[in-house]
Design brief:
- The chain is globular, with a radius of gyration of 24 Å.
- The chain starts with a helix and ends with a strand.
- The chain is 10% helix and 36% strand.
- It has a single domain (2-134), classed as Jelly Rolls.
- The chain has one helix at residues 2-15, and strands spanning 48-56, 65-66, 71-77, 79-84, 89-93, 98-100, 107-112, 117-125, 133-134.
């Protein structure tokens, strides 16, 4: 009889549904302004979200450009210095940092150090709109 009770208890333990655990959420940042102090704005009307991975070779600089709509960049690897030509300011970002990029201000980025800088970039713009505009020489 003890064996039958043990087997029944064992069967209940094995057949019991697993208890679902809540996912862990870690907020990496909360932002209300761009890296130059502009309020974050979304486009009016429909939005197209584009997610890209940008790799900047070690020591390389991006051409001078601007973003007409809101852009976010998460630094996955490497280090980058962003220099804003309109404000005359620069800031450095490392892995784990989020860059809320300046909107409609001319700037450039330079990969610092011996390794490439890898950015996960998220653009929010009206469908079909340009997300980056290069400055003509």
């Amino acid at each position: 009889m003890k064996a039958a009770a043990f087997a029944a208890a064992l069967l209940l333990c094995v057949a019991a549904p697993a208890v679902a655990q809540a996912p862990e959420t870690v907020v990496l940042g909360r932002y209300g302004t761009t890296n130059t102090g502009q309020p974050i704005l979304g486009p009016d009307g429909p939005v197209e979200v584009t997610v890209s991975r940008v790799t900047i070779p070690a020591g390389a600089s991006l051409p001078v450009h601007k973003h007409p709509h809101q852009r976010l960049a998460y630094v996955e690897a490497g280090h980058i210095r962003v220099t804003n030509l309109d404000t005359g300011t620069s800031a450095e970002f490392k892995p784990g940092d989020t860059i809320v990029e300046a909107r409609d201000q001319w700037h450039t980025g330079t990969a610092l150090g011996d390794t490439p800088t890898v950015l996960l970039v998220i653009d929010q713009a009206p469908p079909g709109a340009a997300t980056t505009v290069r400055k003509e020489p």
